[in-house]
Write a structure and sequence with these properties.
The protein has 63 residues and is mainly alpha-helical. Helices cover 68% and strands 0% of the residues. The longest helix is centred in the C-terminal third of the chain and has 23 residues, at 40-62.
């Protein structure tokens, strides 16, 4: 029987404050997808979210 703490998934935290942070996270998603650790659809969703965050960071930095 699992304890309550064992049922709760671990929250993944990635620093996504700069374009370099986004590049690093995109590379992680790519490697996990190529290794078969991440499904294609999940990888695509993550890439789309990261690209949206990247565009927001660039837009804010231009102001």
């Amino acid at each position: 029987m699992l304890t309550e703490a064992a049922k709760k998934p671990v929250r993944y935290r990635a620093k996504l404050d700069t374009p370099e942070d986004i590049r690093r996270e995109l590379a992680r998603v790519y490697r996990e997808n190529k290794s078969g650790l991440l499904d294609n659809q999940d990888a695509e969703k993550q890439v789309m979210m990261l690209m949206a965050i990247s565009q927001l960071i660039l837009e804010i930095s231009r102001k």
